[in-house]
Amino acid sequence: MSATWLFQSNETNNLLTEVLAFEQSWQNEFELADINEELLRLEQALIQGVNQTLDKQKLLYQAIDYLIDDLGFTGPGLQMLPESSLSNVSFCIMHKTGDEITLSVIFCHLLKSLGFEALISELPEGIALAVRLSSSEIVLIDALSGATEYLISNDDVKSSLVSDIAQYAKAIQHEDLVKLILTEQKLALLDEGLFEQALACVEVLMELLPEDPYERRDRGLVLNQLDCGQWAKDDFDYFIKACPNDPMAMFIRLQLEEQSPIVATIH
């Protein structure tokens, strides 16, 4: 019995391209052409920097070491970097520093350039990069540290262990991963008071999740901070109607009732 079914995913190869294009709406530090040029340089450096005659497992371990030791990808460490930068894929490509999600996304893309079947997995304790070496072999990678865990299932392994592996590595589908990446950025931007950038981010999320009342709520929160009170009220009303029992809906309803007449502002 194998855990092959774990890796059946509709994930496409354009995840990184899609996210980078979205980020252009709210990050203005890097031009898309420069990001793509750097990404191509990283791909070529990785391909040239490893010994592709090695067996797949040894090649994978060498590639991980190269990404961290030679190309210099790392987590924030002791650097006092804002979460809005660490959660931004463009920043991670250009500065080689990111969080668990951005590093995993970039490593996934770069490992695919070596022919690996790489994907982002959801684990009980967070996010990890998973690489399928064969129909029964999985290597899980902690992108922050480079630590790996080798998992195998075969006919000699008890069914209970295979089941445990199945629970341990659940592939995140492409659309859900895009939403996860953008949601992390939205929350960081909101937390840091970067409301104009947060507005651009939440509007992209609303295009992806047109019926999600929580995205409407978040846009309302951003618009309210930007003194666009009337437009914020429309979003709040939508959220309250869709989620009347949500504690946040009750709080917003009380706030609206206490507000003085709203003056609309156009930005």
Describe the 3D structure.
With 267 residues, the chain is an alpha+beta fold. The chain is 55% helix and 10% strand. A five-stranded antiparallel β-sheet has the order 4-3-2-1-5. A hairpin with a 6-residue loop joins strand 3 and strand 4. The N terminus and C terminus are likely disordered.
Task: List the SSEs and their pairings.
Blueprint: H1 15-23, H2 32-49, H3 56-70, H4 83-86, H5 89-95, H6 100-112, E1 117-123, E2 126-134, E3 137-141, E4 148-152, H7 159-168, E5 170-171, H8 174-191, H9 195-208, H10 213-225, H11 229-242, H12 247-258
Antiparallel strand pairs: 1-2, 1-5, 2-3, 3-4
Helix pairs in contact: 8-9, 9-10, 10-11, 11-12
In short:
The chain is of the alpha+beta class and 267 residues long. The protein has helices at 15-23, 32-49, 56-70, 83-86, 89-95, 100-112, 159-168, 174-191, 195-208, 213-225, 229-242, 247-258, and strands at residues 117-123, 126-134, 137-141, 148-152, 170-171.
- Elements, N to C (H/E): HHHHHHEEEEHEHHHHH
Largest sheet: 5 strands, antiparallel
Shape: elongated
Characterize the quaternary organization of these chains.
single chain
Helix content: 55-70%
What is the name of the CATH architecture of the largest domain?
Answer: Roll
Which regions are unreliable across 5 or more consecutive residues at pLDDT < 50? 1-12, 262-267
The structural domain count equals 2
- By CATH reckoning, the class of the largest domain would read Alpha Beta
Strand segment count: 5
Core attributes:
267 residues, alpha+beta, C8orf32 fold, five-stranded antiparallel sheet, 12 helices, disordered C terminus
